[in-house]
């Protein structure tokens, strides 16, 4: 029975797609130029190359703090990626924290440097970001934090199944 319903549904989709008539009495197109290319205007903000990581980090922190209920923010710029950690009032429920994170992400999206920033409200990650930020401000190069930044980003961004190469063997201890 399920197979019959699925087949019937599939056939109706195919038939309805083939019976599209032009609207308003317009005649169907007589010829199509196969060399004609469609040009699409880019509507998403372009990610700008980061020249001064410290200034960008300060700017993104200010944007994050401007969102209601964000008590403070710490941002580290690593290469062309920004990670923003936010502090929210203690005891706030997870749903409200999620809403605040979304609000921060929306605010950052309006900034050309923040369009691809990663936002976290995890207390541990925010403390680690604060430590890295302080050491960077004291002259230590951010490249010295490559492994720690990779670990932070790995905790924020989950493993996406389509990114897993089935031919590549997993490392010991990797899930």
TrEMBL record:
Keyword vocabulary terms for this entry: Lipoprotein, Signal
Biased composition (Polar residues): 23-45
Organism, as annotated: Paenibacillus ehimensis
Region Disordered, residue ranges: 23-52
Protein name: YhcN/YlaJ family sporulation lipoprotein
A Pfam family annotated for this UniProt entry: Spore_YhcN_YlaJ
InterPro entries with a match to the protein in the record: Spore_lipoprot_YhcN/YlaJ-like
Signal peptide: 1-21
């Amino acid at each position: 029975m399920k197979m019959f319903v699925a087949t019937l549904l599939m056939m109706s989709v195919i038939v309805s797609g083939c019976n599209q008539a032009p609207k308003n009495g317009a005649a169907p197109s007589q010829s199509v130029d196969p060399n004609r290319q469609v040009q699409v205007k880019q509507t998403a903000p372009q990610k700008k190359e980061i020249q001064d990581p410290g200034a960008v980090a300060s700017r993104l922190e200010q944007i994050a703090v401007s969102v209601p209920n964000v008590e403070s923010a710490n941002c580290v710029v690593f290469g062309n990626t920004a990670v923003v950690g936010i502090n929210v009032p203690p005891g706030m429920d997870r749903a409200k924290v999620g809403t605040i994170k979304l609000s921060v992400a929306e605010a950052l999206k309006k900034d050309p440097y923040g369009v691809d920033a990663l936002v976290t409200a995890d207390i541990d990650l925010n403390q680690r970001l604060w430590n890295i930020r302080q050491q960077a401000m004291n002259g230590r190069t951010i490249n010295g934090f490559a492994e720690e930044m990779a670990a932070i980003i790995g905790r924020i961004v989950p493993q996406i199944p389509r990114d897993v190469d089935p031919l590549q063997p997993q490392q010991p201890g990797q899930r």
